[in-house]
Amino acid sequence: MFELKGYCFPGSLDQADELLHGNKGNVILGGLLWMRLGRKSYQTGIDLSRLGLDQILETEDKVEIGCMTTLRQIETSKTLKKCFGKILSDSVSHIVGVQFRNSATIGGSVFSRFSFSDILTALLALETQVHLYRGGTLPLSTFLELPPKKDILVKLTLKKKAWTTHYQSHRRTATDLPVLTAGLSLCDGQWRICLGARPARAILAPKTAALLPEKPDDAQITAICDQVVEELTFGSNPRGTKEYRQILAKTLVKRGVKAICS
Ligand SMILES: Cc1cc2nc3c(=O)[nH]c(=O)nc-3n(C[C@H](O)[C@H](O)[C@H](O)COP(=O)(O)OP(=O)(O)OC[C@H]3O[C@@H](n4cnc5c(N)ncnc54)[C@H](O)[C@@H]3O)c2cc1C
Questions:
Q1: So what's the pLDDT on residue 1?
Q2: Measured distance CA(69)–CA(53) in Å, rounded
């Protein structure tokens, strides 16, 4: 179990930022599901839960998801389903259980950049921007490449477009960490193919996606399934070998493309 020497509810993001950088040992708290597994000792825990950052807000051209929004809110949001289909709800529905998803936050999930992340796989298949208090606004793909740096992830924004989407994960048991994750989307004739838990962090396969026509035939789908394992790297861990993941990648991409086309 980790240790906090102090706890505070800042009244504004300015105050939260001041506190975070005021002492090396101060830390932002999300839902604490991951942090509680550690044994670190921190100075002050900064709880953002009184800043109204637990909202999913739809504007004319985008949807904003505040950092304290829980995975369960994402799973059950009618707004997200209407704008992006089931990709986001399907990406979180296998994470442990409802009680867990009622506490785990999107801020903690994205800021942690987990290599096994379901939700990063889905968010990358959409056009997602990350809003950092100090680091400004940047595409999720850029954020994932940056070295970790102390900051506050304030919210995510997702562009509203004519998306058709699909999400799948392969797991050894229903609520285990995934062996491989696949998020696909089609918008204005452009495909996005994202694979995660390779076991490295979720990543797009832009070359493969560019080769895929809007309405591919079976031969074209088979060709891009071969191409995706050429473009991306896969590895082994106790959940599966590199070769197993390559086979899964082909299967999940094929199923995803077929589901979107149908
Ligand atoms: C047992 C278990 C099983 C899991 N299985 C899966 C799975 O199958 N698939 C999957 O995708 N995920 C899985 N996860 C990850 C989970 O979904 C969450 O992503 C994780 O718990 C972090 O979210 P949290 O709100 O608990 O963050 P916390 O534990 O509170 O924080 C995690 C880190 O993020 C930082 N942080 C939190 N919020 C912010 C913010 N707004 N700005 C800056 N930094 C912040 C904290 O300082 C901390 O370093 C699992 C986690 C656990 C513990």
A1: 83
A2: 7
